Amino acid sequence: MAAEVAAGAGHDVVVFDQHRSPARKFVLAGRGGLNLTHSEPIDVFLDRYGPERPHLESAIRAFSPDDLRAWCAGLGHETFVGTSGRVFPNEFRAVPLLRSWLRRLEGLAVRFEPQHRWIGWGDDEALQFATPSQPVSVRVDRTILALGGPSWPRVGGDGSWRTLLTDRGVRVEAFQPANCGVDVEWSGVMSDRFSGVPIKNAAVIVEDQEVRGDPVVTRAGLEGGPIYAQSRRIREALTKGSVSVQIDLMPDLDIRALTARLTDRRRSGDTATKWLRRAGIPAVGASLMREATANQLPKDPFELAQLAKAVPITVTSMSAIDRAISSAGGVAWTEIGPGFELESLPGVHVVGEMLDWEAPTGGYLLQACFSTAHAVGRAAVASELSRTGD
């Protein structure tokens, strides 16, 4: 995106990519449907960035969700709004959009240099690259670093750039997993029997904040949309020790209604699991309740309803960062000047997940990456015009 903006203003632009083909993480993002952005009102949208909103707001307002949809349409790919308000290209995939985008960049004379891994600066301040054949040194007027965070390193970056910047005195906050699963010490029964099973229409509650959805049991713990949405709260709470996450298995019923249902649907000779199933709680939910009580389920309908409405699950840690959808941490905001330029390294800009922010899934991640890159492209052009007077 930054290359498109700069090349569109008439500058010579080269994209150095460590992989054989460009935008591999972008393609991964579209594997289950390319969620580009969200259709909610802009102020609600901006609130999704939490404490980092002030740092991102001007860039997102300047290249907004509506602008992103118009940009897609300009590439010949109309978008639609899903039932949840999320925005997707009509093809629902990343590859067709990427092909059109690369054709546009080719038309703007943007040059791509694959298999060039940036390894820092030389004594003459030229950019240094490792390639399969020989080291390469390149002098440029302006550098835009779009190296990403360390999540999914096999298709994107691995965060190794952190040392290159800290060696130059740039403060970089430690990377942490975001939008990821959590680890739970399940019993063998839970992990063997229910791994991969979703807990349908549940609510995940952390510190009185509730998110509805379908969390999924894994061999190591839990993942899925409502877990990802709560990952920041869980991660921050884990700094004080293990965390108890509550799962409401019947969020559409209050305690009184669920107690009445359990009382009405109890049959003589029913096992606890069968009784719960009659009340609408599936086997995976019953197993969660057994996990939470060491297999000592209450027999009183009211006590059982209380448990079903707030099943306590002890989370021991976050899942590994290399499996996270995104990452927190990155270049500290105190290091960033106008146009996302590094204060201590004039002429060097950073964008996207290199910066210290995070957001939930739902289109917010890609939107902020597009918007910061668009802002950097404009800033680089303005800086070069100021420098050369041309």
Record the strand order, biggest sheet. Answer: 13-12-16-17-11-15-14
Main beta sheet strand tally, sense and closure: 7 strands, antiparallel
The outline comes out as: elongated
Instruction: Using the coordinates above, name the CATH class of the largest domain.
Output: Alpha Beta
Number of strands: 19
State the helicity in percent bands.
25-40%
**What's the helix count?**
15
Low-confidence stretches: none
Nearest-angstrom radius of gyration?
A: 24 Å
Beta fraction:
15-25%
Q: Judging by the overall fold, what is the CATH architecture of the largest domain?
A: 3-Layer(bba) Sandwich
The CATH topology label of the largest domain is: FAD/NAD(P)-binding domain
Number of domains as seen in the coordinates: 2
Distance between the termini: 23 Å
Summing up helix and strand content along with how strands pair, one would put the structural category as: alpha+beta
**What is the name of the CATH superfamily of the largest domain?**
FAD/NAD(P)-binding domain
> What's the mean pLDDT score?
94
Q: What this model shows, in words?
A:
- The structure is a single chain.
- Strands 13-12-16-17-11-15-14 form a seven-stranded antiparallel β-sheet.
- It starts with a helix and ends with a helix.
- It is an alpha+beta fold and 390 residues long.
- The protein has helices spanning 2-8, 24-29, 42-47, 53-62, 65-74, 95-107, 161-166, 188-194, 225-229, 231-238, 255-264, 272-278, 283-292, 301-309, 364-388; strands spanning 14-16, 37-38, 79-81, 86-89, 111-113, 117-121, 127-130, 136-138, 143-145, 172-178, 182-184, 202-206, 209-213, 216-217, 221-223, 243-248, 311-318, 326-331, 348-350.
- Helices cover 36% and strands 20% of the residues.
- The radius of gyration is 24 Å and the shape is elongated.
- It folds into two domains: 2-178 and 327-388, FAD/NAD(P)-binding domain, CATH 3.50.50; 182-318, no CATH class.
